[in-house]
Design a protein that fits this description.
Largest sheet of chain B: 2 strands, antiparallel
Distance between the termini of chain B: 36 Å
Shape of chain A: globular
Helix content of chain B: over 70%
Mean pLDDT of chain B: 84
Largest interface: A-B, 58 and 56 residues
Number of strands of chain A: 5
Number of domains of chain A: 1
Strand order of the largest sheet of chain B: 1-4
Distance between the termini of chain A: 19 Å
CATH topology of chain B: ABC transporter involved in vitamin B12 uptake, BtuC
Oligomer: heterodimer
Mean pLDDT of chain A: 80
CATH topology of chain A: ABC transporter involved in vitamin B12 uptake, BtuC
Strand order of the largest sheet of chain A: 1-3-2
Structural class of chain B: mainly alpha
Strand content of chain A: under 5%
CATH architecture of chain B: Orthogonal Bundle
Radius of gyration of chain A: 23 Å
Number of domains of chain B: 1
Low-confidence stretches of chain B: 346-351
Low-confidence stretches of chain A: 1-20, 391-402
CATH architecture of chain A: Orthogonal Bundle
Number of helices of chain B: 13
CATH class of chain B: Mainly Alpha
Shape of chain B: globular
Helix content of chain A: 55-70%
Structural class of chain A: mainly alpha
Chain lengths: 402, 351
């Protein structure tokens, strides 16, 4: 701000006109949106007491898992400003951790007697490898953090668009591996079950609690909410930590940040690793909830869905991301398939709404970026930055060139 | 001075890095052909299979070169990856396939109607794709010129998704056959045991004149000069009286036209089209552009041919289901070893 002001010495600065952007009325901005968020924050944990509808429970549990995922991507894209288009890779790795370490998939492990670790009850007698779910989450966190760093390494020297493409390439490679490793076998069993999928996988079984079942979805929902609470706490603490400030500094101006002593390599790698770990956590939960690990789940589309969530909510804004994730997963899992699916055919067109889901998200990304790039619930710093860019728009063309 | 007489070179680690930066990519590129050449020589005693891979790779690569030029032109002028470019290529395929269907051309048609029908399809596909690309720039990129760099990239992804769905609704979710007008698999002649097919001739025969036209236009004409000036420094170009907006539109038009031409060749070459071809094709062509050095026209052509070759090798020897993964792995390798590409200078983003 001060730099822009010193360049253009006009003391009586006119009201900042936001060219090409839409500001909501102050009432909406200051009162309505925060109220909605507050309402969601209060209602979400209480939902199981309000309704007992199994389909709704399932959808809400998925939505809450998407919140975890979006919060993870938000660290990479929102905080550190590294556009990651291959986030689905971490979903895949987390899910395969469940498929490999908590299912009957490796039927011949330990001479068909199975490998069991901290599991009890019925599962302890089954073949395959069965680890306790908390342990699987831990494994997933380790695996995805390492994968995140590996994906981050080639992008360290790059900036901007290149990072997006390299991460996209990595995401596609992982997706391809998930499909193709079906033909590569360890012993008698393929590494991944490809499009057929690894199913069933173990349900979550926590110590001191009855094992989760597919019939009663309430515990799943509670577990997801607990996961979000943990992730939210970590996110807030990280944002205000030294590391969080380093991420934002790198996002705002890498050269200046490095000159101020921010270690760029370490900071970026940690952003990738943290974001990936959250993705992996959500992946394990989703795999167990959906009871399958299937290569068809790990498409590029998923990366864009999560990206659209954080853009809708507001890049870098934690509450915004929560809002965006819930709204979009509602649109994705409920409104498009159940509410407006028939609309085009009623209007005489020959397609369903579910067919054009891609276009809906594409349109959403486009409109958000043009009309309200700061998102529904903007991060304060990001909003300032966007406004500042508009002020100096006459001097820049796409990017200012040094 | 004694110290001055001994030239103190950089430390060994830095020299190794520099060496890797210069030759690493070349070595990585040579691994596949050299490996298969040795394997062929030892098992079959001649290199005709490798030669066939090379020819097919060349004609396949010509298509990717045309698409890659679109990426490179746009990147050169606005420093933005036009993520929707692959979809422009896909729409080009769809336009030409629809036209060929509308003309009622089939395999049985005689040569003259086929030739003129394809010529008209080529021109219409080029104009259609070019216009589409200009519209994309108007809608998705121009309003965001002053925004942070993340913004136009995200709208580019959004645009690409919208166009993919347009393709999906237009031709449906399955692969669609295109009449094999040029008899693509027909063996035209054989040199040194390497057969040249009709499709190879078509692809090279359309690509080379287009490339010559393009380089001449950019190198010789007034508008081409304006493009180069804008790419170098938009601010100075504007001060010299160049209409920067028009020049940018022109760049998108040219890139889109080449993608449209590539779309027609692809439809004839593969005889199937699919709404998803733009996504994979776009990424492959982008890899080609980066391999050659983004912003560099000759580099895009070279990269396209190399990627076409890699793709053929992988399709033919490893299995086509692995091809995208292999091409993307090359993309990552290039980014690691030499982000500026084979012929590119260092750019600000890929330092």
């Amino acid at each position: 701000m001060s730099v822009a002001a010193s360049q253009a010495p006009e003391p009586a600065a006119p009201a900042r006109r936001r060219k090409g952007g839409v500001d909501m009325p102050p009432v909406v901005e200051k009162v309505v949106i925060p109220l909605v968020v507050l309402l969601i924050a209060i209602l979400l944990p209480l939902l199981p007491f309000i309704s007992d509808n199994a389909a709704l429970m399932q959808q809400m549990a998925v939505a809450v898992a998407y919140v975890v995922m979006a919060l993870g991507l938000n660290i990479v894209v929102g905080f550190a400003g590294l556009l990651d288009l291959g986030y689905v890779a971490f979903f895949a790795l987390g899910a395969y951790c469940v498929g490999w370490f908590a299912s009957g998939y490796w039927a011949y492990a330990n001479h068909t007697k199975g490998v069991h670790f901290l599991v009890g009850g019925f599962i302890a007698t089954r073949e395959g490898i069965h680890f306790n779910f908390l342990l699987v989450i831990l494994i997933a966190i380790i695996v995805t953090s390492i994968a995140g760093m590996i994906i981050g390494l080639p992008t360290l020297r790059l900036r901007g668009d290149y990072i997006a493409i390299v991460t996209l390439a990595f995401g596609e490679i992982i997706g391809r591996l998930a499909v193709n490793l079906d033909s590569v076998k360890i012993g008698a069993i393929a590494v991944t079950a490809g499009r057929q999928g690894i199913s069933p996988v173990d349900r979550i079984d926590l110590p001191f609690l009855a094992p989760f079942t597919g019939l009663n979805l309430r515990p799943w929902y509670w577990f997801a909410v607990a996961l979000v609470a943990v992730v939210l706490f970590v996110n807030f603490r990280l944002r205000d930590s030294r590391m969080g400030r380093a991420w934002v500094a790198l996002r705002e101006d890498e050269i200046a940040a490095v000159a101020m002593g921010v270690p760029s390599v370490k900071t970026k790698l940690l952003a990738y690793a943290t974001g990936a770990a959250f993705g992996g956590m959500a992946g394990t939960f989703l795999a167990s909830l959906l009871n399958t690990v299937n290569a068809d789940q790990f498409q590029f589309f998923f990366s864009i869905l999560v990206l659209a969530m954080i853009i809708l909510g507001g890049l870098g804004s934690i509450w915004g991301v929560v809002l965006g994730a819930i709204v979009l997963s509602g649109i994705n899992n409920y409104i498009i398939p159940d509410v407006i699916n028939e609309v085009p055919s009623k209007l005489g067109f020959d397609f369903d709404m579910t067919q054009i889901t891609f276009a809906i998200y594409g349109f959403l990304l486009l409109m958000m970026m043009i009309l309200r790039p700061q998102g529904l619930l903007p991060e304060r710093r990001h909003k300032m930055e966007l406004a500042e860019h508009v002020e100096t728009s006459d001097e820049t063309l796409y990017t200012a060139r040094a | 001075m004694e110290a001055a007489s001994i030239p103190a070179g950089p430390p060994a680690s830095q020299r190794i890095r520099a060496l890797l930066g210069t030759y690493g990519l070349t070595i990585v590129l040579l691994i596949l052909p050299v490996y298969y050449a040795i394997k062929d020589l030892s098992s079959e005693g001649d290199l005709s299979r490798l030669g066939e891979n090379l020819v097919a790779g060349l004609s396949n690569g010509a298509i990717w070169a045309l698409v890659a030029i679109g990426y490179t032109l746009v990147y050169g002028i606005v420093e933005l990856i036009n993520f929707a470019h692959g979809e422009v290529f896909m729409i080009g395929s769809f336009i030409s396939a629809s036209l060929i269907g509308a003309f009622g051309l089939t395999v049985e048609s005689s040569t003259v109607p086929i030739f003129f029908g394809m010529l008209v399809a080529l021109i219409v596909a080029m104009i259609g794709s070019g216009t589409l690309n200009v519209l994309i720039e108007r809608v998705a990129y121009r309003p965001l010129r002053s925004a942070p760099k993340l913004a136009p990239l995200i709208t580019a992804v959004g645009m690409s998704f919208i166009l993919q769905n347009v393709g999906l609704l237009w031709k449906g979710g399955n692969q669609q056959g295109v009449p094999d007008l040029v008899n693509a698999q027909h063996n035209l002649f054989t040199i040194f045991g390497v057969t040249i097919e009709n499709s190879d001739v078509l692809s090279i025969g359309v690509t080379v004149p287009l490339l010559l036209l393009m380089t001449n236009f950019i190198g010789r004409s007034r508008l081409g000069k304006a493009m180069r000036a804008t790419a170098q420094d938009p601010e100075a170009a504007r001060l010299m009286g160049i209409n920067v907006d028009t020049t940018i539109s022109l760049t998108f038009l040219l890139g889109g036209m080449l993608a449209g031409a590539a779309g027609l060749i692809y439809a004839m070459y593969q005889t199937t089209i699919w709404y998803f071809q733009g996504f994979t094709g776009g990424l492959i062509a982008f890899t080609a552009a980066v391999m050659g050095g983004i912003g560099n026209l000759r580099g895009a052509v070279l990269g396209g041919v190399i990627i076409g070759f890699i793709q053929q090798m992988s399709d033919n020897r490893i299995g086509s289901q692995w091809t995208p993964a292999i091409v993307f792995a090359y993309l990552v390798l290039i980014m690691t070893f030499k982000p500026s590409g084979l012929l590119g200078e260092q750019t600000r983003d890929a330092g």
